[in-house]
Specification:
This protein has 207 residues and is α+β, with helices and mostly antiparallel strands. It is built from 6 helices and 7 strands, in the order H-E-H-H-E-H-H-E-H-E-E-E-E.
Amino acid sequence: VAIERMCPMLGGISISSQLSPVVDTGVLVRYRLKVWKTIRVGGVSRDELFAQVDRITPIGGHTQVLVRRPDFSVAATKRDVNLVVMSLKDLGFTEPPSSDEVLSSDWLNDWSLKNLSEQMIRLCDAEVAPNLFLQLLTDERKLDLWVAMVPIPGEVGQASSILGVSPDCGVHIFKLRPGIRLKLNMKLVFELQELPTQPPVSVAPAP
């Protein structure tokens, strides 16, 4: 079943593009993305985490099975995670891409190196989505967001995972079949990481 049929509210509310318009001068331009939201993850058991979510919104039956797998890890220690929201158009697509193309660590690394200045977008750890939902403001929970997740190990034959957070769908993990096409207006959530600044390379003068 195509993802757009699983939840009719995909792409419900427009979020402004994260990329600034540029004039083509023929010079390679790299961008810096603005952090959309910083959340705190870790430090709570998996059962308690989803019990908190379930008090606010329903959790899909298949999702309840997945989150109880030992593969769905929750960090013991707390850490802050910077997040960014991007549509597939922001990533440069003009035609709907396949899930295994864009929800790939290799593809995201390559895109980041080509387009970002000392930053990288990456797939989110599994615990990001439920923590994100809990830390959204009430009005923000009206957004339809899809957290691009690191695939949960042990799911044979599946290329990638996204966790949907929306008022109509609740919180659901969708395992995407390889080759399924994603809608261009989907609002995908990625983790945004800062890369260490590279020191300038000194060149010894010629003898």
